[in-house]
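Data availability excerpt. The first of two example chains:
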Amino acid sequence: MTEDEKVGQRITRARKEAGLTQQQLATMLGVSRPAVAQWEKGKTSPSAENLRNVATATGKQLIYFFTGSGVKTDDFDEAPKMRGQVPLISWVQAGAWTEPFCPAGDDLEYYPAPPTCGPRAFGLRVRGESMIEVYPPGTLIFVDPDVDPVSGDDVVVQCEQHGGAEATFKRYIIEPGVGPMLKVLNKDWREQYMDFTEDCRIIGVVMAQMTLRRQ
């Protein structure tokens, strides 16, 4: 068996242990599904950058793909594994989120759930530039509706006075003697702060993010 075939077998094993299909792994890496299939068959070898991304996506240490085993030292621990799937929903669906709401359907995309997310987490794709300093448009954010926000958290919130049914995405700030506010992260934005009024409802806290390669 060639070294490429050994690496391919380890990619296959890591992908399956992470609960990913070839297409899901390909989407996370910004490559085609046939490219992943060729790696797993040992027909081609992934670049160093792609192999690092495979390790990140599957929760494996990079050394695993070369040796078949993980390494633990006093300085490094194994990365937490991603478990379960998170549905990617629309901002309108996020704005309609209530306790019984549970998005489902064959047309939904699913991504591996980051270790920090609970069982009801969902994904959103960032639109617009109000949070561009940290979240460029196209960034995939993972939101947990079961986490209580604290000052400094980035939250998905729905406010009737700021745009009706769709949810929005801002930083949650509590200043002593002032009360909660919502802040944008684009320093060129005209209005840096929004009032967090009684008609505002926090839908969930952003727990992780993933930037997808532009096609």
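And the second chain:
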Amino acid sequence: MTATGIISALIIGLIIGALGRLVVPGRQNIPIWLTMLIGVAAALLGSVIARAAGVAATSGVDWIELFIQVVLAAIGVALVVGVGGRRGVSRY
């Protein structure tokens, strides 16, 4: 993978992760690097799912693939926030 490909994946991952954070209600206290990591993973997994379902090859913008990626990012953000929220300091 070239440097341009890595930079593109990080930018797309940040956008997909940010969209996933917007979908999840409430405040998410996760760092930007974790949002980017979730976004990159969701983008890759979403592309695989879209190709397997036969909806990745469309003319123009792949709205179905983008929808799948954002839903996966939202699920990833919700899981990370849920797991991280349980590790909070006890108030007693």
